[in-house]
Every structure is written in C-alpha cells, then in structure tokens.
Amino acid sequence: MKTKQRLFETHLAMRELCLPPGKEWSPGGAGWSLVQVSIGNGYCLHAQNSTELKTGTVLMLAQQAHAIIRASQLGSMSLHTFKVMPARLTGLITLGEEIFIKLTAAQKEQTVRMLPPDSPVALKMRELSSGSAPSGLMLRLKLLQLFVEAFGAEFGEAVTSPETADAKERLRAFLQKTPPGELVEINCTSRHLSRLFHELVGMSFRDKRAEIRMARARELLATSNTKVVEVALESGYKSLSLFNLVFARRFGTSPGRWRQKYSGNGVAENGSSQKNAIVGQLPRLKKALDFPSN
Fold first, then answer.
1. How does DSSP classify residue 259?
2. For residues 107 and 102, what is the distance between their CA atoms, to the nearest angstrom?
3. Which one of 96, 123, 143, 208 is separated from 86 by 20 to 30 angstroms, measured CA to CA?
4. Within its chain, how far is the Cα of 175 from the centroid?
5. Angle between the 205-223 and 240-251 helix axes, to the nearest 10 degrees?
6. Phi and psi based region of residue 226 (left: phi greater than 0; alpha: psi -120 to 50; beta: remaining)
7. Integer angstrom CA distances of residue 141 from 59, 145, 269, 287
8. Residue 129: which of 262, 287, 14 has the closest Cα?
9. pLDDT tier for residue 269 given thresholds of 50, 70 and 90
C-alpha cells in the first residue's frame, strides 16, 4: 500500500504564530522544534506533564513529544518557532552527533525541555526573532548554533556497552569526526563492523548511506537551482539514469517534478547548493557567530 507523502518541510527558518485565547497549536512534523512565547501566557500539554508557559519561555520539542501548546483563556499568545532536522545537515554535523540527537529524542524524559525566560538560549532566541536580527545564511547559522546550545554540555555524548566497548569506541570515534556526506564514498564490508554500525545507528550501513544520499538530493533540489545531473553526482550517484530510477522508486515521482512541487518551501541559493554555500562561507562567518554579551 502506498503511503501518503509528507510535505518537504523547511527548517532553520523563523516563523511567527498567533493563538487566540484558548486555541491550540502543535509543531508536528519531523525533527526538533524550538518555540518561544513572545507575548502572552499559556500551557504546554504532553504525555509527561502539563506545564504553564510564561512570556519568554522556550520549549525544545522532539518529534516524539506530540506536544500541544494552548493559549490562556484570558488572552492571545504570540509564538516564534523554528525547526531543525539533523538528517538535512549533511556536511555540518557528524554522524555521531546525529546519532546523539536521535538517542536523546528516543528518551521520553528528554523529548520536552523547558528553558526559563532569563536563560541564555531564551535571551538569544528573543534577539533572533526581533526585527534587527540578521537574515538569510547568517540567521540559519545562528539558529543552528542556538539549537546546539539548547542541549548544553550533553551534546556529543553517547552510550556504550562494556562487552564491545573497544570496537564500538573506535567506530564511535570515527563517526564523531566523519561528516555524513563522506560516508557515501565509503564501503563497509566487515560483517562484525556492519553489526556494530547497525547497533549504533539503528540501520545497516548500506541503508544509512542511501538515506544520506536521498536527504542530500532532496535538500539540493528544494533549495538550489542546481541541475538534476549535478544533484545526482553531488549525492553520490555516478549516473543520472540510476539516480532518477532510485529517486522515483523512493518518492513516486521524478526529481524534476519533485522539485517543481517542493522547491518553493526552501531558500534558494541561486545556482549552488545550500551545503556548498554554507561550508564555503564558514571561515568568513566564524567570528560573526558570536552573540554580543548581554
């Protein structure tokens, strides 16, 4: 049975929402959502608990949280929110960091986090949602930095098991420093290594490589004007015909038609991939990522 295709959602883009008194909203979709109460008060309703929200509070919500935000009956609520999808950050985070984020999302007690209005993350998010905030690439980089800071000192941690600690540690160390994009050029032939990879990542090396390739292809199609043949090569496919075949089997349509339907949801980079644009400008933007002290 053919499943309904999910819309290609934007991420690292700030949105503003207004909830009338007593009305509800749920972030929904894939990835993590950071939500700040800009004006008003309300409640966050989820399986773990129901929490009162005050102006300035920031919520960090995993997809698995299934949280609902409800405005107070006494007044409307204004929200600023953005979404982060780690699988679409190829070239910017390592596979080990992506695994850590997934492991955190899998823990029920970690799917909903609340940061007080006077926390550094809350103050910085308020700054980024103001009219004086940067735009374009600079804003996306700052939003990504804010997402990482919301994890605090936990970022980069992982779980090991004593019986395979040595092998897993070596594999984990490799994953921690290897961007996902580099995995598309690597072959994993050892049966023992493949088993450890499956234990750490939750899928086979082959399936993970295919997932990375398709994620990169969709990101390029939706956020750039790059030719389809160049998207195929950039995504690790050596021929356009093979890329078209695999893409059509996975998404039920050709890359060109998929782009026509979803490219309006992304931020175009005017002829070059978003990944290349970000990576190429990172040295120049390194100092600019520092927030001014409060």
1. H
2. 9
3. 123
4. 18
5. 100
6. beta
7. 20, 6, 15, 12
8. 14
9. very low
Task: Indicate the Cα dihedral angle 94, 92, 143, 109, nearest 10°.
Answer: -10
Domains in the chain with CATH codes: 15-154 (2.60.120.810)
The mean predicted confidence, pLDDT, of the chain is 76
Strands (E), the chain: 15-19, 24-25, 32-39, 42-45, 50-53, 58-61, 68-71, 77-84, 112-115
- Is 248 a residue whose pLDDT tops 90? yes
Exposed e or buried b per residue across 210-243, where buried means at least 16 C-beta atoms within 10 angstroms of its C-beta: bbbbbbbbbbbbbbbebebeebbebbbbeebeeb
Chain centroid, CA 200 distance in Å: 19
pLDDT number for residue 28? 79
Q: Quick one: CA dihedral 44, 48, 49, 55, positive or negative?
A: negative
Say which range, 2-16, 55-69, 280-294, has the weakest mean pLDDT.
Answer: 280-294
Q: pLDDT band at 157, cuts 50/70/90?
A: low
Short-list 28, 110, 117, 108, CA closest to 69: 28
pLDDT at 164: 39
Residue 47 contacts residue 68 (beta carbons within 8 Å)? no
Say what the pLDDT of residue 81 is: 95
Within 7-112, residue ranges assigned H as helices are 95-106
Q: How far apart are CA 177 and CA 193, in angstroms?
A: 17
